[in-house]
Amino acid sequence: MRKPFVAGNWKMNKTVEQARSLVAELLPGMRAVTGVDRVICPPFMALTALANMLAGTEIGLGAQNLFWEAQGAFTGEVSPAMVKEFCQYVIVGHSERRTYFGETDASVNKKVKAALAIGLIPIVCVGESLAENEAGKTASVVTRQIVDGLQGITADQAAKIVVAYEPVWAIGTGKAATGPGANGVIADYIRRPMSGLFGEEVAAGTRVLYGGSVTGANADEFFSQPDIDGALVGGASLKPDFVKIIEAASR
């Protein structure tokens, strides 16, 4: 049995004080739900404050990115050890990082390895653009991102990661994929290539999330699918609706 997993990606939203207020609002509802791994991924500036607020709870904390080098002259970057000081998780390869900041499968691979080496659990994002989807390239794009992004890690390491399927055309657009459609992509283009890389047991045991305009209203459609284990939530994670999504995952 794969334990449900719901993470909130706050993206570039909330000052430290606003972050404290939002967590104070969400925390009672989040803590009331059992049987679901719950993670908040705020901006870097809020990690220290939220780590203190979440201490003693079962709510996990994640960063939205990291750099693969341990230290050095890399202005503006954040090292794995800096993330590890406060977090248990880190988002790697989000489509916005790929689109706006030039991340590639090769750089994602370096970040996955760096996260695993220091004991962080990477939430590895994959997904096709609208143009790729309409051109019938979903299979090749998602498979390539999995194979190249996870190249060179061991089966034991692969068993620790979380994968998020985020079709780029559904992120922040209000245009979510269908539950069966997302499930098919996950089964055929995520679990199947992972089985080829790491074996059937690892592929079947890996938690795979859906991300892209998930709300409390449509969460049940996705969570009822056999290969979808939860969600990486964007905009709705900044609202009380986030608790409804976690409650849906618990069902």
Protein model, in words:
- The chain is an alpha/beta fold.
- The chain has one domain (25-250): TIM Barrel, CATH 3.20.20.
- It contains twelve helices and eight strands.
- It has helices at residues 16-32, 47-54, 80-84, 95-101, 105-118, 130-134, 138-149, 155-158, 179-198, 200-205, 219-223, 241-250, and strands spanning 5-9, 37-41, 59-63, 89-92, 121-126, 162-165, 207-210, 230-233.
- An eight-stranded parallel β-sheet has the order 7-6-5-4-3-2-1-8.
- Helix 5 (105-118) packs across helix 7 and helix 7 (138-149) packs across helix 9 (179-198).
- The two termini are 14 Å apart.
- The model has no long low-confidence stretch (mean pLDDT 96).
**According to CATH, what is the class?**
Alpha Beta
The CATH architecture classification is Alpha-Beta Barrel
User: Strand content of the residues, in percent?
Assistant: 5-15%
Give the biggest sheet. 8 strands, parallel
CATH superfamily: Aldolase class I
State the oligomer. single chain
Helices, by number, come to: 12
Q: Unreliable stretches, pLDDT < 50, 5 or more residues?
A: none
Structural class: alpha/beta
The CATH topology annotation reads as TIM Barrel
Overall shape: it is globular
